[in-house]
Amino acid sequence: MTHADYQQWLDLDLDGGTLPPAERRALVEHLAVCAACQSERRALERLRETLERSRMPVRSDFANQVMAALPQSGWESRPARAWVAPAALAAGLLAAAALLLGGGRVAASGAVLGTAAALADVFVSALVVGAGLAGASWRGLGMAIEELFAGSPGTLLVFAGGVLFLHLLFLLLLRRRPGRARARRLS
Amino acid sequence: MPEGPARTTDEELVAAILDGDRDRFADLVERYQGRLVNYLYRLLHSSDDAHDLAQEVFFRVYQALDRFDPRYRFSTWLFRVAQNAAIDQIRRQRLKLVPMHREAAAGDEAREWEFPSAGASPYGELRNRELGDAIQEAVEALPWEYRELILLRHFGELSYEEIATLKRLPLGTVKNKLFRGRQMLKEKLADYVAG
User: Fold this and answer.
1) Measured between beta carbons, which residues in chain B are less than 8 angstroms from residue A65?
2) Closest CA to B144 of B43, B69, B73, B62
3) What does the alpha-carbon distance between residue A106 and residue A112 come to, in Å, rounded to a whole number?
4) Helices and strands of chain B, counted as H and E runs
5) Which residue of B has its CA nearest to A81?
6) Which of A72, A114, A175, B172 could bond A105 through an S-S bridge, CB–CB 3.0 to 4.6 Å?
7) Which stretches within A54-152 are classed as H helix?
8) B137 with B190: CB under 8 angstroms?
9) B29, B43, B61: which to substitute to probe chain A, counting the most A Cβ within 10 Å?
10) Angle at Cα B54 formed by Cα B52 and Cα B60, nearest 5°?
11) pLDDT per residue rounded down to tens, chain A (187 residues)
């Protein structure tokens, strides 16, 4: 064990006493025979005492001043159970949906089952309509391209030229934008 | 400093305040005012500034109290807010002080509060004033990485674990830096603390 180790243990022991018991025993034994460490101990104790004494008193009315000027906080105006209103609204909407959509089945199989069945019907219908629309769109696009390729080479050339023109126009717009921004900044 | 075992914890106080008992915030203020004002005073060198900023820190903490995460210690949160606020204020002060004679201004401010004289003789008061200046200079001379830990430990009275959490440092690093920081302080204050 080096002298520096003992000094570090000494420092730790004086500042909170968190030294493990075995190390503390070794330190006590070392201190009994080492004059330099005894001197170090006195210096560290005085340092702690000096820092302690240098503490400034707080103004006697400080806490009262803080409390008197304490601002109203945003969280104070919020009700304690902020989830109650949205939950009530959701329940109301669900009940309305049950009445409107599942009215016929409510009597037969209960409100909950009727609502679930009606909502499932709406969901399935929406899926079918969406799939039909998407299919029709793709089919239409396929037919248009097919017609284009089946046509004369001139038509194909015009189409390719149009696409190229659109690309060039897009690139031109992209290149112009920074210049405009810079001009705007300078003005 | 910790008191009896029946003492309400900081986290319980925060819960009570959030349940609508606004007056319990005064308990938190009283619990931390000494540590916070002293910590800020060593950073700002002005009693008025330290009190003003401590008040501001309590306001900020109160306004954000519903965002406090009880898994962490209230003290580390409070001192993190305080440290950020102090750094902002120091930056603003530096911007104002750059064209002026900085050393003279700092020396004057350091004398704003000294050790309690307790009826000491003029010689004793002079020595206290010298010691107060010496402590301020010694703390100021520490590199920031040591100074901030020394201030949190000896003026903010945070535990090693709290400092480690606040600074996001391993506990061993905190112990080592505090040891080295105190060694530096001891050397600079050798005339006053030599064994």
Assistant:
1) 55
2) B43
3) 8
4) 10, 0
5) B19
6) A114
7) 62-68, 74-77, 84-101, 103-109, 111-150
8) no
9) B29
10) 105
11) 788 888 889 998 888 767 888 888 999 999 999 999 999 999 999 999 989 888 889 999 999 999 999 988 777 776 555 567 778 888 888 777 767 666 555 455 567 777 778 888 888 888 888 888 888 888 888 888 787 777 777 888 888 899 899 999 988 888 765 444 444 444 4
Measured between its terminal Cα atoms, the distance across chain B in Å is 28
pLDDT tens-digit map of A162-178: 989 999 998 888 876 54
Tell me: the pLDDT tens digits for B66-109?
Answer: 999 888 899 999 999 999 999 999 988 877 655 544 444 444 44
pTM (two decimals):
0.64
Shortest Cα distance from A72 to chain B (angstroms)? 8
- A59 CB neighbours in chain B (<8 A) are 51
Q: Report the b/e string of B104-113 with b at 16+ CB within 10 A.
A: eeeeebbeeb
Cβ count within 10 A of residue A132: 10
- Provide the pLDDT for residue B118: 45
Contacts of A57 in chain B (CB under 8 A): 116
| Complete domains list, chain B, with CATH | 8-113 (1.10.1740.10), 124-190 (1.10.10.10)
ipTM > 0.90 (yes/no): no
Report the helix count and the strand count for chain A, using DSSP H and E.
Answer: 9, 0
For chain A, the domains span 3-53, 100-150, 153-187
